[in-house]
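PQQ-dependent sugar dehydrogenase
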Amino acid sequence: MILRSRRAVTGLVSLGAVLALSAACSFGPPDPDAQGTPPNLPKPSAAESASGAPEGDQEVAVTVLAKKLEIPWGMAFLPDGSALVTERDSGRILQVGPESDANGLTVTEVQRLTEVQASGDGGLLGIAVSPKYSADKTIYVYYSTARDNRIGKLVLKGKLQPIVTGIPRSTDDNGGALAFGPDGYLYAGTGDATPTGTQAQNPKSLAGKILRMTTAGKPAPGNPSKGSLVWSLGHRNVQGIAWDKTKRMYASDSGQPKNGELNVIVKGKNYGWAKADGASTNPALTSPLYSWPINDSYCSGVAVVEQTVATACLLGKRVWLLNVTGNGTVLGTPQALLTGEYGRLRGLVAAPDGSLWASTSNQEDAGDPAPDDDRIIRLVFSDGGAGIT
């Protein structure tokens, strides 16, 4: 599989054969039951339209949707197609869209959570919208206090109610992934919160785990151990989770000294940290679906569209694309998109209209911000994805 890339001043990237996927795995519209309707997005100008690409190439329109944000972290969509976006350090929840103007989508501060105490990579992190939002108007957030990490729920502009407390807190490796699974339960990715990995292997600790819970924060039925929130263990720092159409679950894992990982998550499995860094020959440990050198990865957000799994990377400053077969193996070699184009990339979600939204993370200490940072960008694929006509 070969990737050719071409970038014009206007923001077009041309991909090669890696993204010339079959109709079954194109970046097309979502399933009919996908939540939300497309927002009124700015469309690529004539200068941004596909032109002059080598025959057989597919083009990806890259549109900046929002600018000058402060370390955007989590993104989740409301039924009207707008997105709720968290800012890690400010503790703000922003609404992006659905209205737009000449500068992109409108950005409105909905609420600032005073309970958030940000430092290091802790703060206001993941966000999830209730599957029953039209009825209950409830959202869920993963956030840090001075003492611990927590999961809470609230009606926007209302009081934050913690439902899980006591997730270990540290300067680094606080996790923060949060999403509802296809089973209707809420999943959260946590960080080990220690440099030695001692908590990731302790089944009684909430650190270094993926948790599965009810909307009240209680252990969900069918968890590996009755009365425990733990779904999987042996993780270093889980900041992204997503599912494909077969309900196969994927999660990023970062912070290891040598490797960044993309894992297929299976109930009760041990993913190795700190006994393993990347693939392991120990049959008691589950090796990653794919791993990269840490400087090419340190990935955070994960999104799935058809058979393509994508993950956005901080140190790697790119999006990795993997074509995953029906039996869960990687077809060919993962391909890199946007390498170095927008700096550190953290958030990555599949939007209701079939596009991908990514966020930059250049305002944090490790970043090198451009004048418009931080930004949310939209990737629209020309072989059937939203927005290309």
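thats it. The first strand starts at residue 12 and ends at 15. The two ends are 27 Å apart (CA to CA). bye
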